[in-house]
Amino acid sequence: MTADEPVPRWIKLGTEPMYAGYVRVRRDQYRLPDGSESGWDVIEIGDTVSVVAFTPDDRVVLFDQYRVGPERVIAELPGGLIDPGEDAVEAGIRELQEETGYRPGAVFHAGAEWAAANSRRRKNILIAADCVRVAEPQWEAGETGRVREILAAALLEHLVSGELSDAGAALRGLHAFARAGDVPAPLAGLQRSVRTLLAPWTA
C-alpha cells in the first residue's frame, strides 16, 4: 500500500451479544482486506459529558470519588451519561448540579471525541462559566464523594497529572474554547482567562 492509497475498510460479517450489565459487550466478526476473519469485542454504552466548571472567582469545581477500575479516589470533572432525549449541554448542566450542587451561568459545548477504539461512545466536554453553588448534591444510589474547588491556575497541572479519566477531552475542549470566535458575552471574560491560562503551555 502506498501513502496515497486509502486504507481498506473491513467487512462486518455479523455480531453477537456477549455480556449485558451496566455496559454491554458484543462480538463483531470481520473479514479483513487479506481475506482472513477476526472477532472483536465492542463495548456498548451511551454517550457521556464532562464539565470544566469555572466559578466567578477563578476556581474549578472537582468531584472526588472512588473508582473501581483504578481502585482509588480520583479527582474528576463532574459529568456522566447523557440520558435519552437530552443533548450534551442539557446533560452537562444536570450532571453538574446533581453531583456538585453547582449551576453554570453560561456554557460552551467544546465538541466530542471517541472514548476508545472498541466503543462507539462519544465523550462530550463543556466549558462552564460563573458556576455557583445553588443546592446540595443529589447523588444516585451507590454514588459518594466530595465536592471541592481548586485554583484555575492549578487546573492544567491537574489535567496532565494522569490522575483523571477525562483529561484529554478537557485539554482539547479548553483549546477549542480559547480559539472559538464570537462567543456569547457571558463567556467572553472566561475565554480571555482560559487563553491566559493556556499561554505558558502553548508557547
From TrEMBL:
What is the protein name given in its UniProt record?
A: ADP-ribose pyrophosphatase
Keyword terms: Hydrolase
> The organism sits in which domain of life?
Bacteria
Annotated signal sequence is: none
Check the record and name the Pfam families matching this protein: NUDIX
Q: Which cofactor does it need?
A: Mg(2+)
Q: Where is the Nudix hydrolase domain?
A: 44-172
One BP term from GO: nucleoside phosphate metabolic process
User: What SUPFAM superfamilies does the annotation carry?
Assistant: Nudix
One GO MF term on file is:
hydrolase activity
